[in-house]
Amino acid sequence: MSYKLGFVSQKGGVGKSTLARATATAYAAADWDVKIADLDIDQGTSYTWLKRRLQSELQPTVEVQTFGTFAQADQRSDDYDLMIFDGAPHATKGTIEIAKHSDLVVLPTGLSLDDLEPTVLLAHSLVKKGGIDRKKISFAICRAGTNSKEQEEVRDYLSQTPYHLLDGVISEKPCFRRAQDEGRSVIECRYKGPREQADHLIQSIMNRLEELTK
Ligand SMILES: Nc1ncnc2c1ncn2[C@@H]1O[C@H](COP(=O)(O)OP(=O)(O)OP(=O)(O)O)[C@@H](O)[C@H]1O
Ligand SMILES: [Mg+2]
């Protein structure tokens, strides 16, 4: 059985690749055969991350390949236990394709209304235009600040939408940036506290995928 997991957004830089890499390394650590399909053909940032990972000889190994279209990537899905689609910086035609074919589609969002509104609008349009089952859509709070009241307000805002909100957050932290610069994922960050924080959100993604596919 092979599973498909998508990370998409309306805006760029929200944390799609960060979550895709962390989820991939978490499943690979559990001995799953995982591939990240990097659909950002112009930058291929997950592919360059893999090069840094290989140079540092980090374990577990994950495969990353850049594809021009969702369809090209999806042709390879059956070769893996899990195919992870790391979406292009902006919503494209491929975004609906990713959402349609994935068992779970994660929309990372920051805390500002400038991030939240386009995220919720994208979720609506996936349902309206793409006919995607709303249960498959999950929001993940990324690049969060440290103000807990702000986080509470955002959780409250997102809970009022008809979509699932993943437990946990990933804060904006230099150590997460540095980890990825070294070819690590955020769950492999050198500091225990941040690592546990990232683990929590990634575990929520894994739990949600299991719930939707059992
Ligand atoms: N929690 C974080 N703390 C610090 N830096 C972060 C964090 N999350 C992401 N970044 C950094 O922010 C940048 C954008 O993150 P990322 O590449 O995950 O977003 P993306 O949605 O994949 O972007 P794009 O739309 O360009 O593909 C990267 O340089 C990444 O290292
Ligand atoms: Mg990216």
UniProtKB/TrEMBL annotation:
CDD domains: ParAB_family. This is CobQ/CobB/MinD/ParA nucleotide binding domain-containing protein. Coiled coil: none annotated. Transmembrane segments: none annotated. PANTHER family: COBQ_COBB_MIND_PARA NUCLEOTIDE BINDING DOMAIN-CONTAINING PROTEIN, P-LOOP CONTAINING NUCLEOSIDE TRIPHOSPHATE HYDROLASE. Residues 7-185 form the CobQ/CobB/MinD/ParA nucleotide binding domain. It comes from the Bacteria. Pfam families: CbiA.
